[in-house]
Design goal:
The complex is a heterodimer of chains A (397) and B (398). Chain A has 397 residues and is of the alpha+beta class. Chain A is 48% helix and 15% strand. Chain A is built from eleven helices and ten strands. The N and C termini of chain A lie far apart (45 Å). In chain B, helix 5 runs antiparallel to helix 6.
């Protein structure tokens, strides 16, 4: 057992931190959030130059070849800086999805533009009425004349409107909540019949409602095997969750540091408020929650790469559940201990609270993952090697 | 012991219910129930309807325009108004400065200000907190120096709720720096149109403009606007803080929110079933409901003691702590109930005149902001930590 970073991981941590300290200060982030597109082209290019856009892509595909721990390192730093770039969808989800389950052609055509920062992705899995269930898929896809035809809609697709290519789950057989019969497709947002509407989310990010009306896409747009997409979706979602757990830990760290500092400097009744034992104990509880959260983010980062899906799903859901609770506690206490100041838009505290609160909602809240944890033993295994690889030629986008 | 309403109390309830049904404009009620943004007009409209009925200030003595209701009647009144979606009567005039003026004010102050409070002609704000003086309110520094027949006021107030609408501010100022800090504080009534007053918005984390900074630079306040005696302001302020005991728990409003929570949880689905049938979520709702039932009885017990003439005491702190914890739990559960639909942030859609498209169910749109906004209730009006200090010191003798 070894809890230390390797030299390479330490280097990664240093370079991403240094980059964000220079390019993603709280004030810079404020203007990025307020900008028209809601992300920073400069920062995105910088991430490309650092090689971070290829983080989960194997080295033989010119990527960084990182796993869960490397993702954790990057996402924790993103959490400390409240990064609003479409990184989760593009890199943690899409790039790793393509690297895991894509055909040779898909890898060849899609990975290089991701690495170079020329192509952004969004994963459109969730639907109205489905809450957090990834197997709730009412959007349909059927084969017609060698093409797939998509109908339906996706809701609250994070960064959906800035994506150059969407990864969409659609039902190719079965009923709305069947675990079988779901497939994954690449869909170009400019395709005829795709409609979208972008809006801000309260944490400073953007999301979109996306509709598909008789959208015809080529036969080779399928990712992995038809009808058997759910295990892949769950794997990709688990990677996203592990990454979000790390991001949450980064947010918690900033909140705890800020609160501790405030307890030492804010004076009332002639003393720093940190002299009141009620607040001391509260702060200790916040620190304990943080330490527990950090441990679980670490566990999730390691186990997300576990070949055994039961092991993976248990650890990832356990982490998301605990981090949901810890994030709630730390958020509420950070505001409370800052008094009126904690309620302002001016102070950074509220912004970290908003992101932590959002993270609990993304990919299932604490309650959802409590259920999933308890039911993890009955998971459906993912057999990557059994994916049928479509042979058709992939079209360059 | 009898926990039921008497026939007279039931008849009174029907009377209030009928009034609210007739006089509360449905578009205002809808905004309140659905957590939409209220504007000044909405509050004033409802307050004027209550005024016309003679019900605007149930807590005041009858000779000043009160209703003469007993505490149970007042409780029933609050229940009915809240359940139907009546906006809260803005507390600063009727519940806060009004009783102080009645108890300690000069006859001319009563004559001038009380009718204008009742009729909503003046909107009041509360100038207590300062940047350096929150929980430690008695350390406040805003100076008022006597010059002839005026006080010259200099300093800064902060977190002043809805001061952007205010015509008048009741303000704690320091008139002396000698002796105990509590003894140098005076209570002034300040016209917000006086030269030297600047109101600057503070935007809160939910993006709303509800609180303000109020800067006072050489503001001339006539000496006749001093309430009671110079140097006794702290006593009046404390009187004010302990005066309003029943509303503080917010039981009636929480009941309305609980009903709305159940409505949402019945609409939202999980795995094709209503969320409210999910045992995990249903249990959470039930637990808050049980807490709320207990709090209601606790409030009524305090009211009953009140009726027997016991003076207001620190049990108000218990009502405040428990009441705000329940309010916060309800906002939290509402946000949780809508799941991903809590995320879209379209604040324009919470106001009047929104013609744009919505994202997700209409009821979901303001819920995250509401959750964030309600973090305030455990901070203001004496933070819940300060309330616990009061209980441990005043009730438990620790
Ligand atoms: C089952 C058991 C086994 C034990 N075994 C051993 C042993 O093997 N060897 C040994 O030496 N002792 C042993 N102890 C004694 C133990 O260490 C003491 O009980 C402990 O230190 C608390 O002291 P006390 O019982 O006098 O309680 P007190 O010190 O009187 O404390 C009473 C309460 O006040 C709280 N309190 C006290 N000071 C503060 C403060 N400054 N701030 C906030 N809260 C405070 C405490 O947390 C506690 O809740 C044992 C006790 C138990 C119950
Ligand atoms: C939305 C909102 C509206 C408001 N409206 C008004 C208004 O209209 N008029 C007005 O005058 N004021 C208003 N306030 C101010 C409010 O009364 C103060 O915020 C409150 O008194 C706390 O003061 P503070 O913000 O300076 O926090 P601080 O007093 O600095 O407190 C910071 C933290 O320390 C804790 N703390 C402080 N002292 C102790 C202690 N002795 N023991 C344990 N814990 C302690 C507090 O509980 C808090 O958690 C409003 C505040 C908010 C947030």
């Amino acid at each position: 057992m070894d809890f230390d970073y390797t030299e390479e991981q330490q280097l990664l941590e240093d370079s991403v931190s240094k980059f964000l300290e220079k390019n993603y200060t709280f004030e810079q982030r404020r203007s990025i959030v307020a900008s028209r597109v809601g992300y920073s082209a400069t920062a995105w290019e910088g991430l490309a130059n650092l090689g971070l856009l290829g983080l989960p892509v194997p080295q033989d595909r010119d990527g960084f070849g990182g796993g869960g721990i490397e993702t954790m390192i990057v996402m924790e730093a993103f959490g400390r800086h409240l990064v609003v770039e479409p990184y989760l969808g593009t890199v943690v989800m899409a790039a790793s999805c393509i690297a895991t389950a894509g055909t040779d052609e898909q890898k060849q055509y899609l990975l290089p533009p991701i690495l170079e920062g020329k192509m952004k992705f969004a994963c459109a899995f969730t639907e109205d009425g489905g809450r957090y269930d990834l197997d709730h898929v009412a959007t349909t896809a059927h084969m017609d004349d060698g093409q797939w035809v998509l109908n339906g809609s996706k809701s609250v697709v994070m960064h959906g409107a800035v994506a150059d290519l969407l990864i969409v789950s659609a039902r190719t057989s079965g009923d709305v909540n069947d675990r079988n019969g779901i497939s994954l497709f690449f869909v170009h947002p400019a395709e005829e019949g795709v409609s979208g509407r972008e809006y801000p989310t309260y944490d400073g990010n953007r999301a979109a409602e996306i509709g598909f009306e008789n959208v015809r896409i080529s036969g080779d747009s399928l990712i992995g095997a038809a009808d058997r997409g759910l295990p892949l979706i769950e794997l990709i979602a688990d990677r996203a969750i592990a990454a979000l757990c790390a991001e949450a830990v980064g947010c918690m760290k900033v909140l705890n540091d800020a609160t501790l500092e405030y307890l030492k400097t804010r004076q009332q009744f002639g003393v720093p408020i940190g002299r009141f034992q009620a607040l001391q104990h509260r702060m200790v509880d916040m620190v304990m929650q943080y330490e527990q959260a950090k441990s679980m983010a670490l566990l999730a980062a390691v186990k997300v790469d576990d070949a055994d899906p039961v092991e993976r799903r248990k650890s990832v859901s356990a982490a998301k559940e605990l981090i949901g609770r810890a994030g709630r506690y730390i958020s509420q206490q950070a505001i409370q201990l800052h008094g009126g100041m904690g309620m302002t838009d001016e102070l950074n505290v509220g912004h970290y609270v908003k992101r932590l609160t959002t993270i609990d909602t993304l990919f299932g809240d604490a309650d959802h993952h409590l259920d999933r944890f308890a039911q993890a033993e009955s998971a459906q295994p993912l057999n990557v090697t059994a994916f049928e690889r479509p042979r058709a030629k992939w079209r360059r986008i | 012991m009898d926990l039921n309403y008497t026939p007279e109390e039931l008849a009174f309830r029907d009377e209030v219910r009928a009034f609210v049904r007739d006089k509360l404009p449905p578009q205002i009620a809808r905004k309140v129930i659905e957590h939409k943004r209220l504007v000044k007009d909405d509050w004033v409209t409802w307050q004027k309807a209550l005024y016309a009925q003679g019900w605007i200030a149930p807590g005041w003595p009858k000779e000043y325009g009160g209703t003469g209701w007993n505490p149970v009647q007042r409780h029933i009144f609050e229940e009915e108004c809240a359940a139907a979606g009546g906006p809260r009567v803005i507390a600063f005039g009727v519940d806060m400065v009004g009783p102080v003026i009645i108890a300690f004010g000069h006859p001319w102050q009563k004559e001038r200000y009380l009718p204008r409070i009742l009729s909503s002609e003046d909107w009041w704000c509360q100038g207590y907190s300062e940047p350096g003086s929150g929980s430690d309110l008695a350390s406040l520094k805003t100076r008022a120096e006597r010059r002839g027949d005026h006080y010259i006021v200099n300093g800064q107030k902060t977190w002043t709720t809805l001061a952007q609408y205010a015509d008048m501010m009741f303000c704690l100022v320091r008139t002396s720096t000698e002796g105990k800090k509590q003894n140098g504080i005076s209570f002034l009534l300040i016209d917000m149109k006086t030269p030297g007053i600047t109101v600057r918005p503070i935007i809160t984390l939910d993006g709303e403009h509800e609180v303000n900074e109020v800067w006072l630079e050489n503001v001339e306040v006539p000496v006749e606007n001093l309430v009671g005696e110079e140097g006794r302001g702290w006593t009046y302020a404390k009187f004010l803080l302990s005066h309003e005991r029943t509303g503080i728990a917010g039981v009636s409003r929480s009941k309305r929110e609980l009903a709305f929570l159940k409505h949402i949880a019945a609409e939202q689905t999980q795995g094709g079933r209503p969320l409210i049938e999910n045992p995990r979520f249903r249990d959470k709702i039930s637990r808050v409901e049980i807490d709320l039932m207990a709090l209601e009885i606790t409030v009524l017990r305090v009211l009953a003691a009140d009726r027997q003439g016991r003076p207001p005491g620190p049990e108000a702190s218990i009502l405040k702590i428990k009441g705000t914890e329940i309010q916060q739990a309800l906002t939290e559960l509402m946000m949780e109930a809508v799941g991903p639909w809590a995320l879209p942030h379209l604040p324009d859609s919470w106001g009047d005149h929104w013609l744009g498209e919505r994202v997700g169910p209409e009821y979901a749109a303001p819920l995250a902001a509401q959750y964030l906004n309600f973090r305030k209730v455990s901070i203001y009006g004496g933070s819940n930590e300060i309330q616990r200090n009061i209980v441990s010191q005043m009730i438990l003798g620790l």
